[in-house]
Amino acid sequence: MSEPIIQIRNLRKYFGHVHAVNGVSLDVMFGEVLMVIGPSGSGKSTLLRCINELEKPTTGTIIVDGMDTTAKGFDVNQLRAEVGMVFQSFNLFPHLTVLQNILLAQRVVRKRDEKEAESISRDLLEKVGIPEKADVYPSQLSGGQQQRVAIARALAMQPKIMLFDEPTSALDPEMIKEVLDVMLDLAREGMTMVVVSHEMGFARAAARRVVFMDNGVIVEEAAPDVLFTNPSHERTKLFLSKILH
Amino acid sequence: MIDEEQTDFEERRTLSDFLREVPWWGVIVAGVGIYVLISMLTNVLYIEAFKAILPGIRITLEVTFLAYLLALILGLIAGMLRVSRNPVLYALGTLYVEVIRGLPMLVIILYAGFVIGPAIRDATHKVVDLPMLSRAIVGLGIGYGAYLAEVYRAGIESVHGGQMEAARSLGMSYLEAMRFVILPQAIRRVLPPLGNNFIALLKDTSLVSVVAIPDLLQMGRLFISRTFRAFEGYNSVAVLYLLMTFLLSALVRYVERRWRIP
Ligand SMILES: Nc1ncnc2c1ncn2[C@@H]1O[C@H](COP(=O)(O)OP(=O)(O)OP(=O)(O)O)[C@@H](O)[C@H]1O
Ligand SMILES: [Mg+2]
Asked: Is residue B170 within 8 Å of residue B181, measured between CB atoms?
């Protein structure tokens, strides 16, 4: 638990004159669940996307599992195979069945043979609770089921880190729990997770630390109970009062 | 009981689906066409015309399929260049599309036949000396490749950016993501315009008669200049083109239905 698996130093990401991330330093420990909260436009997604190089940092360094991702000539595909990502809008491949969605990158990137990849995929579908949906297309699933497939698809690469960008905010309330339950299982198994989400129940159950971001910087970080009930900054209080009511 | 109702319902749905999918205009045209064809085939003048012209069908179809295949490949490459973020690749793709689209197809075919073909022959000291038929096919393929490039580009751009991100976040390279995630979706979406271009290309193969390829039109014109029977000659040519375009559009429809994403 003492070794940081992600080390972010002075990270800045500018889009033209928008300073989406404006000097963030952050360590994520091996096996830790870290929650990131903050108002819309505060740079949470951008921070997450810099970790697996979906966005290229303007300046600063990010070291993931010993690899300096900002070094010249760094192989991003090697990094991305270690870092799974789950999106708010699922982004399943609509032309492939559920099983094929989970198989594709295993075959193309990991070069697993068909049988091995299929057995891994079926185990993962079992794990996320929808083994019977292997042969249907994403459009035939509910939002909650689609998001669970997306989690299984990322897990099939056997990543060391999982990034979640508002995984439940596109879901109807009754489907949120089934996704959070899968994430909670993952957390218990010791997966390192960085989760952008305002699900406080999940934060309390799984996260050791919560980070509050505003205007591209980290305003404060604390244990979930402390941050939610007794924040030390005015901006945090204001934000929490908005999302609680 | 419930099972029976279920089956009944299924069957009715299938029947109404079938009725909706029948292209009624096509049935009417086919009916008229068959009538015209039968009255033609019982007429000695037309039989003679058909006999003279029919060998051209093989050439026309050969030119159509080979030129379309070439256009599909060139179009795919140029379409991918057009969505590239590398400015050099983008410029290359754009140059090809803009120049070729700015030239009449007839001019491109004449170029392929009488300028580029001979130039290649001379440059390779007669090692590569394409026959006129191949030159015409290459000309048409290059010409249509520019149109298909824009079709592919529109298709690729219509696929949501989240698809590329999801594929990349799983560790796929840009080209792998294109091949396995983006293009399969893009191509399905642009099947209708791809099909339209296929049919347009079939009609434009008539242009190859200017470089003396004995295609359908050329055979018709030879027949007419020999017999001075323009009426029967052009009627036969028109009927045969129509027959081919109808069959092609049926093929296009079939492919579209087969590849639909559920
Ligand atoms: N690709 C981009 N191009 C230009 N500006 C961008 C881009 N991505 C993000 N931004 C801007 O950067 C800022 C931070 O965006 P980001 O998506 O990281 O915020 P967020 O905290 O995830 O917000 P939300 O809760 O709405 O998802 C915003 O002002 C946004 O408009
Ligand atoms: Mg966001």
From this structure: no
pLDDT in tens, A115-171: 999 999 999 999 999 999 999 999 999 999 999 999 999 999 999 999 999 999 999
Q: List, as one string, the DSSP characters of B20-47.
A: HHS-HHHHHHHHHHHHHHHHHHTSHHHH
A127-141, pLDDT tens digit by residue? 999 999 999 999 999
Token pair belonging to A195: 């989760």
- Which of A53, A75, A95 to mutate to test binding with chain B, by most B CBs within 10 Å of its CB? A95
> To the nearest 5 percent, what fractions of chain A are helix, strand and coil?
40, 25, 35
* A18 Cβ closer than 6 Å to some ligand 1 atom: yes
- In sequence order, the 6+-apart residues with CB closer than 8 A to the CB of B190 are B151, B152, B154, B155
Three-state DSSP at A65 gives coil
Q: Per-10-residue mean pLDDT for chain B, 262 residues long? A: 45 69 76 81 87 93 97 97 96 97 96 93 90 95 97 96 95 96 95 94 95 93 93 90 90 87 70
Q: CA-to-CA distance for A24 and A7, rounded, in angstroms?
A: 10
> What does the alpha-carbon distance between residue A238 and residue A116 come to, in Å, rounded to a whole number?
51
Alpha helices in chain B (DSSP H): 2-21, 24-41, 44-53, 55-82, 87-101, 105-111, 117-123, 132-158, 161-169, 174-177, 183-189, 191-204, 216-227, 230-258
Domain B53-259: state its class. mainly alpha
Q: Which residue of chain B is at minimal alpha-carbon distance from A155?
A: B170
CA B119 to chain centre: 28
Angle between helices B230-258 and B216-227 (to 10 degrees): 170
Burial tier of B4 (Cβ tally within 10 Å: 0-12, 13-18, 19+): exposed
Domain regions of chain B by residue span: 53-259
Return the SS3 of A128: coil
Q: Do A95 and B185 touch (CB under 8 A)?
A: yes
